[in-house]
Amino acid sequence: MPFLKNIQQQLVELDDIGSKFRHQVENIFHKSEVDEDFLSERLDAAKTFFTGKIHDLTETLKQSPATTDSRENAQNYNDGIKTLFSELSQKDYLLNKLQHPFSVENYFTVKNSFVIPDFTVNAYSKVSAGKTFKVNHPKLYFRLIELRNKICEPDNTPIYLVAGSKTIEEMADFLPLSEKELLQIHGFGKAKVEKFGRQFLEVITDYCLDNNLTSRMYEKSVEEKPKKKRKK
């Protein structure tokens, strides 16, 4: 599953960099006199790097697309994702709260004050994805998912930075056929349209041509049009 592969790649990268950083710190402490300034500099750099990577990974977890009609499999999956999210959130909290110089007492004080952020994931679906799908054009939806994953894989880019679940769903529902229309899709700003828009539009255009379809963006405009307040 591309989603899990993406998570695994991010975890492997964190582990690799973490191992190198651990060796750096060990070398600093192995010297006869610890260079406090250099140690503080390396710790600050590590904090910036790891909090950024952890944020990317937790945002990826929030985009979980998995569904199954097996309660047992769904429960195992949900528990695994929740555990990973909790552990990452705690590490992010510790990195942001602990300050140099460190102490064991301060570490446990900060650790005990941690509260798990709100997070929900539910892979259980009473109806299997193969039977029905909530978007208007499920075939297009999966083509867009495939493209999104293809874009993400080379540089291990978190999926939410390219196109999250709601973004994919809206494209598959409303069939935007121009950059102007794509800007009306949830999650697409000017920069993202310039970077990824052409690739998504090609897939949508080909699908529409093959199925004799036209853009449905006018439905989105009507759906989101705010109600006018009555004058008193």
Account of the 3D structure:
The protein has 232 residues and is an all-alpha fold. The chain has two domains: 2-112, no CATH class; 138-223, DNA polymerase, domain 1 (Orthogonal Bundle), CATH 1.10.150. Helices cover 65% and strands 0% of the residues. It contains nine helices and no strands. It is elongated. The termini are far apart. Residues 134-214 form the HRDC domain.
Distance between the termini: 56 Å
Weakly predicted, low-confidence segments: 126-132
User: What average pLDDT do the residues reach?
Assistant: 86
Helix content: 55-70%
Number of strands: 0
Tally of individual domains: 2
How would you spell out the order of helices and strands? HHHHHHHHH
Rounded to the nearest angstrom, the radius of gyration is 23 Å
Beta strand %: under 5%
Shape: elongated
The computed structural class is mainly alpha
Biggest β-sheet description:
none
Number of helical segments with 4 or more residues: 9
Strand and helix map with partners:
Blueprint: H1 2-30, H2 36-61, H3 71-97, H4 104-112, H5 138-152, H6 165-174, H7 179-182, H8 190-211, H9 217-224
Helix pairs in contact: 1-2, 2-3, 5-6, 5-8
